[in-house]
Amino acid sequence: MIKINRAAVRPREELLRHADEWTKHLIGLNESSSRKKYIAKHIMGFIRPLRTLFNDKCAFCESWVVSERNSSVQRSIEHFHPKVLPCYYDQIFRWENLFLSCRDCNNIKGDKYPVTSSGEPIINPCDDAPDEHLTFEYLDFPGGVITTVGYITPRGKITVELFELNNRSDLVKRRGEVVKPLIQLSRFAVDDTEARHLLEEASLAKAEYAAFARALLNQLEQ
Ligand SMILES: [Zn+2]
Questions:
Q1: Most CB within 10 Å of its CB: which of 26, 96, 132, 197?
Q2: Residue 63 belongs to what domain range?
């Protein structure tokens, strides 16, 4: 998970302007199937700006959601504050509450919104600095790499646990495949400018699992 600057992208004014009107109409619908259809119909207008904002990556696990290499990964729009809770109805069509997500993160989170024992929420990659809460670690061995998202705060802990960032075999396998060559690059990058340049490219927001490349670069600085 990396920090995303939401102010960098703005959806069409029309989408922002209609949020209140759509919410009012939605609350008037009685059947849950009608409500679901109504939300799906209007929310899809946000997909293009969300894809731009999140670089076609899941906001939470950093997997590409549109990829020729991984056709099983599909995109979803995640409501950070769950849409089923009446206290968050006013955020169903709010730009700030919408995130691009892979299907797995979307399904696992569902309508959950856990808080720590002191009442603090999970990490919001647009409002919080994920690297103040999470660590991005690896164990390198001849047969491969095991990558782990660790935590340094209670908010980090509930975020890792909620999205099961270390327990999803497909995610952990794919992450290891991407990070293994980066680890090799980081060894050369100490005195090889080309290797360092490639590692810096892998740390850009558009790169898959960029948080791990950033952690490797930080290690070089120390
Ligand atoms: Zn994800």
A1: 26
A2: 6-221
